[in-house]
């Protein structure tokens, strides 16, 4: 992967009548990266992808591919094939004919296109199904045909719109590693639209989080998870406890935030006293104690109201006397020394270093 942008969106907006689906957007997509566009339904992910594919024209702004504006380039002459959830395979063609199709359209001779298609069927481990009808394949096999059909033309960039959403959970996970490995091996830039955090975070080098037609944050999965930039991102990821409040200094002049659940210390300076902000703390960074912890950490007393087990981890739910819900994620070993019981009061703590601030 290089740092050079393969694609640049410069002030690109899309309006449908009076409705703005994508607000003026600047976005660079780097050569060779796996970029995920993520956000809830209707936030403009698909519209962004369709503009890149040439299926929608931007209402304003410029889209560049390798530095050249492509706004006026028709979809078929762009090097930007797309894979959809529906896959859009041709039901009247065999597997290999589906894969060959784009090469045939480009005028490649029969022997050469057959050889190329066979290579890709091999690579996708579906060579044995070459002569089958599409209707005789499983969901996962169809996915592989759709990928082979798009990749056979060796594009610079592949656009994928929720390609795994129709698959069952186990197959989804398997296809995620197929996709990631394929992307690494080919070095082709992948732009992947999804509303699934696990898909985006497990495959992408960088994730773009969108809301209401705007980019809220761009970063590596780790950056976004650890340091959400806005309240929206923290809410959307759902992995942090959020305490809205007001910045202030504590009695010793240290930076703190006053919230409904108490005043909590921050690490370093974060803005002027009196400013509104929200404290976010990852649910994995919170500790549970039976006794009040020693001073120096942030702590709040709360009653246990629920628990949930997922594999190796447990999620415990608490409620403060002011009615704020707090979620804590722990391994079973971490909880071994605690006598957790519904309705019981505990002290929840976290270090000021794990206190992260977001503005609205
Ligand atoms: N052709 C169109 N005409 C009018 N409005 C449209 C059109 N296409 C999309 N929109 C609207 O633009 C907004 C963004 O749509 P888009 O499909 O990009 O969202 P999305 O983030 O991909 O959502 P989803 O995850 O549901 O597919 C939506 O409110 C949608 O209704």
From TrEMBL:
Keyword DNA repair: no
Keywords, in A-Z order: ATP-binding, Nucleotide-binding, Transport
Claim: Lyase is one of the keywords in the record: no
Domain ABC transporter: 7-237
GO MF entry, a single one: ATP binding
InterPro entries: AAA+_ATPase, ABC_SmlMolc_Importer, ABC_transporter-like_ATP-bd, ABC_transporter-like_CS, Mo/tungstate-bd_C_term_dom, P-loop_NTPase, Transp-assoc_OB_typ2
Family of this protein: Belongs to the ABC transporter superfamily.
Protein name listed in UniProt: ABC transporter ATP-binding protein
């Amino acid at each position: 992967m290089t740092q050079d942008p393969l694609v640049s969106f410069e002030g690109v907006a899309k309006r449908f009548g009076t409705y703005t689906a994508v607000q003026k957007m600047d976005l660079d997509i780097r050569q060779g990266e796996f970029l995920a566009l993520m956000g809830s339904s209707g936030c403009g992910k698909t519209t962004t992808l369709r503009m890149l594919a040439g299926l929608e024209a931007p209402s304003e702004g410029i889209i560049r591919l390798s530095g050249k504006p492509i706004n006026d380039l028709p979809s078929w002459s762009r090097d930007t094939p797309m894979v959809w959830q529906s896959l859009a395979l041709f039901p009247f063609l065999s597997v290999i004919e589906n894969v060959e199709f784009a090469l045939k359209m480009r005028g490649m001779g029969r022997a050469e296109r057959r050889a190329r298609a066979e290579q890709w069927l091999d690579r996708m481990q579906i060579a044995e199904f070459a002569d089958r009808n599409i209707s005789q394949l499983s969901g996962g096999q169809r996915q592989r045909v759709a990928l082979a059909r798009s990749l056979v033309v060796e594009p610079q960039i592949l656009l994928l719109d929720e390609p795994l959403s129709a698959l069952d959970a186990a197959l989804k996970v398997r296809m995620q590693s197929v996709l990631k490995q394929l992307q690494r091996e080919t070095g082709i830039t992948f732009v992947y639209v999804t509303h699934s955090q696990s898909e985006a975070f497990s495959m992408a080098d960088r994730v773009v989080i969108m809301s209401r037609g705007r980019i809220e944050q761009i970063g590596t999965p780790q950056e976004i998870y650890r340091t959400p930039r806005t309240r929206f991102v923290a809410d959307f990821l759902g992995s942090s406890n959020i305490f809205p409040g007001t910045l202030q200094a504590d009695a010793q002049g240290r930076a703190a935030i006053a919230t409904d659940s108490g005043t909590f210390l921050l690490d370093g300076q974060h803005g002027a006293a009196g400013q509104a902000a929200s404290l976010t703390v990852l649910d994995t960074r919170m500790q549970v104690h039976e006794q009040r912890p020693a001073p120096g950490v942030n702590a709040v007393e709360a009653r246990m109201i629920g628990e949930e087990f997922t594999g190796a981890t447990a999620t415990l739910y608490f409620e403060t006397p002011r009615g704020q819900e707090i979620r804590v994620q722990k391994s079973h070993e971490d909880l071994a020394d605690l006598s957790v019981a519904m309705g019981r009061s505990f002290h929840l703590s976290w270090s000021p270093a794990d206190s992260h601030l977001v503005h609205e």
